[in-house]
Amino acid sequence: MAPRFMLIGQIGAGKTTLFNGLFGKNEPARKTQVMEFEGSSGIDTPGEYFSHPRMYHALITMSAEVERLMYVHPADVFDCRLPPGLLDVYANKCIDAVVTKMDRPSTDLPRVERLLRDAGVHGRIFPVSIHDLLSIATVRSYLLGSAPCEPSPCGKAP
């Protein structure tokens, strides 16, 4: 069975912390060196795979089998590092986003949401903090609920 989702995003975006939270792992995040799999549920990817063009092939190849891509972006970073055209490769998939680190004082969710929409994220956008268990539970329910993910059309966040 193919994994349901794959987390992608820049180095330090909070992918591994989110991944651990989604699967109830009470362990500190460590630098992800290779793709980490949680059975047939999800994949955590190293930020280098996203940040360096020579590594795009690894993301593109692995994403062919997943149902949903989750772009992870920090709430206090106001430039988008989504490489131009990269999301076009995933035209048949719904791309959602998780805005992490919402507990930081310099967050600006509306600004980050506009940034993500302008970059091509058309699915749901989930604001989360690892310290807000309800926000993590909401994403977990969305990704791991019993209903299969629907690649199209993309749902909008309420």
Please tell me about this protein's structure:
- The chain is an alpha/beta fold.
- It contains 5 helices and 6 strands, in the order βαββααββαβα.
- The protein has helices at 15-22, 47-51, 56-63, 109-119, 133-144, and strands at 5-8, 36-38, 42-44, 68-74, 94-100, 125-127.
- Strands 2-3-1-4-5-6 form a 6-stranded mixed beta sheet, sandwiched between helices.
- β2 and β3 form a beta hairpin.
- It starts with a strand and ends in a 14-residue tail after the last helix.
Overall pLDDT, averaged? 84
Class from helix and strand fractions: alpha/beta
Instruction: Report the sheet with the most strands, covering strand number, pairing sense and barrel closure.
Output: 6 strands, mixed
Q: Which runs of at least 5 residues are low in confidence (pLDDT < 50)? A: 146-158
Count the beta strands: 6
How would you summarize this macromolecular structure in one to three sentences?
Helices cover 28% and strands 17% of the residues.
Walk me through the topology.
Layout: E1 5-8, H1 15-22, E2 36-38, E3 42-44, H2 47-51, H3 56-63, E4 68-74, E5 94-100, H4 109-119, E6 125-127, H5 133-144
Parallel strand pairs: 1-3, 1-4, 4-5, 5-6
Antiparallel strand pairs: 2-3
